[in-house]
Every structure is written in C-alpha cells, then in structure tokens.
Design a protein that fits this description.
Blueprint (H helix, E strand, L loop, with lengths): L2 H5 L6 H13 L3 E6 L2 E5 L5 E5 L1 H7 L7 H17 L13 E6 L11 E3 L6 E7 L4 E3 L2 H7 L3 H15 L6 E2 L7 E3 L13 H4 L7 E4 L6 E5 L2 H4 L3 H13 L8 E5 L2 E4 L1 E5 L2 E5 L4 H7 L2
Antiparallel strand pairs: 1-2, 2-3, 4-6, 5-6, 6-7, 8-9, 9-11, 10-11, 10-12, 12-13, 14-15
Length: 288
C-alpha cells in the first residue's frame, strides 16, 4: 500500500477485522498484531509479513457483510499466488506482459520497485508484470539480472498499454460538459493518463486530468467556459478518491505539450480559487 493510500484510508472496523482473522486462521496464519490499516501476520512457514487491508475494506464496505468472507478469502489467495510466481530472470521474455503503473511513492516497509518520478508531480511511474490473476512489480534486482534499463522497458510497457486501449476508451459524460471518463477496470486506467494526449483530439491549451483511483481517469479540455466550472472536476476527484479502492490522489493536473503541472482548485464559500501554474497564461492566449 502506498503512503497516500494509507493516509487516506478508512479505519478498519472490528467486524471486518473479525472476518479477516477467521480467514487468516483458515489459511494457517497467526496474527502478530494489528495496525490501523493492516495486519502483521506469521505464516504457516514461520515467515512474518505485513498485509495492507485498506483497499480490500474499501471494496468490501458497500457489500453485505455475508459476502465479506469470500472477498477476503479471494484476496488472500491472490496474495499467496503473487508471492509464489516464478518470474523468469530475463524480463525480455515477458515483454508482452509489461505494463506501466502511475501512483504515489510506495510505503518504504515494502520492497520498493523500480520507479521514475513523473516530472512536475508528486507521482511516480512503476513497471509491473501482468499475470491473469495478479501482477508483480519490476525491481532493480530484476533489471540487473536481465541487463535491461527500466526506461527502455517502460517504452515497451507504454506501447503495450496503447494496444490494450480501445479507440473509444474515453466517453463523454454529458452533452453539457466536455468531461470524458475512462474506466476499463483492468488496473491500468490511471496509467492511461500517460498517453492521454494520444487518446483525444489536440487541444490548444491542453487538458485537465483527474486520477482519483487506479481504475478511473477523467479528462477535460481546457477552455475559458470550463475554467469557471473546473470545481466540478475537483469535486469528482475528491469524492472518488475518498470512496474507491486503490486511491491515488484528489489533485487536479494540467497537461500541456507533454508536460504535467499541478493545478490548484479550491472552493472558499461561494468563491472559486484557482492556483494555476505559470505557463497557463500562455496556454490561454493560445485559445485566442
């Protein structure tokens, strides 16, 4: 679980912890202690590990409690499969399975994967190997063993993502607003923000983006009428960031000519307050 996920996570109620404890016991695991958003366990083999549960609880919360045991059991089974995958030493043999991920920096208690910062943002880009029921992060050790540069494999991963993205991926949400939303639910919707300028017609002043969770991407072409209503996109980002699993950020970003910029949007009473980056004025002049 990333640092931002833990910061915005919901507290785990006792009833949910009880279901988790029962499923862990069935799997032969012993609980060492609970943390606010997860649990430290000892496996049947004697290994100790931390399991983050915030995203699992976000998925379980809207569902009836009698469905929670199945949801928890499937989560633990996927986690076990992910830890037993035999990943080949040479990552080039898995080139077609490489995917990019976009999110906040990882919790340092976990093995940190290979990552590069997304310039102009607090986000970072990582690489994963996509399997049918789980995924594995590419680490520096894997890159060293395969004698590959992460940047080179990232180019392959982005190309794979382009091939997986249908032409009609982004759908306009209403006739009144030019906001488009993409949500295939394949775990790579937020990552598609990295290719958003390829997915939409060119916009003279760029696009605003919201990526509140791993499985959501919202895009709005910059225009003068939209500028006065940009709080709508901010409200979308705030609501979904706090409600959905795998949260990333409730920030709004502005992407123009391939560069990302934070775009501050707040409502103070009835007043809309915008903190735009310096190049935004130049972009507005491009609108004529």
């Amino acid at each position: 679980m990333s640092a931002s996920e833990e910061k915005g996570a919901l507290a785990l109620p006792g009833s949910f912890r009880g279901f988790v404890a029962a499923e862990l016991a069935s799997a032969g695991c012993t609980i060492v202690d609970w943390e606010q958003h997860g649990v430290n366990i000892r496996t049947a083999a004697g290994d100790e590990q931390y399991i983050g549960l915030a995203n699992l609880y976000r998925r379980a919360r809207p569902r009836p409690p009698d469905e929670w045991p199945t949801l928890i059991r499937e989560f633990l089974e996927r986690l076990a499969r992910a830890q037993t995958h035999d990943i080949p030493t040479d990552l080039t043999t898995l080139a077609d399975r490489l995917r990019p991920r976009l999110g906040r920096p990882f919790d340092r208690r976990q093995t940190h994967p290979w990552a590069v910062p997304l310039a102009g943002t607090p986000l970072e880009i990582t690489l994963v190997i996509d399997f049918p029921h789980t995924m594995a992060y590419v680490t520096d050790a894997m890159l060293a063993q395969s004698r590959q540069r992460g940047e080179d494999l990232l180019a392959i991963a982005l190309d794979n993502l382009r091939k997986l993205t249908p032409p009609d991926y982004l759908e306009r949400v209403s006739d009144e607003l030019e906001i488009s939303v993409g949500s295939l639910g394949d775990a790579y919707d937020a990552a598609r923000a990295l290719i958003v300028e390829e997915l939409l017609p060119a916009a003279p002043a760029g696009h605003w983006l919201a990526i509140p969770s791993r499985d959501e991407l919202a895009v709005w072409p910059v225009s003068l009428p939209a500028l006065g209503r940009i709080h709508i996109l901010k409200m979308f980002a705030d609501e979904n960031y706090h409600e959905h699993a795998y949260p990333i950020t409730n920030d709004i970003f502005w992407v123009w000519r391939g560069r990302w910029h934070p775009f501050g949007v707040t409502l103070q009473g009835n007043d809309l307050v915008i903190d735009a980056p310096e190049p935004f004025g130049e972009a507005l002049r491009a609108l004529g």
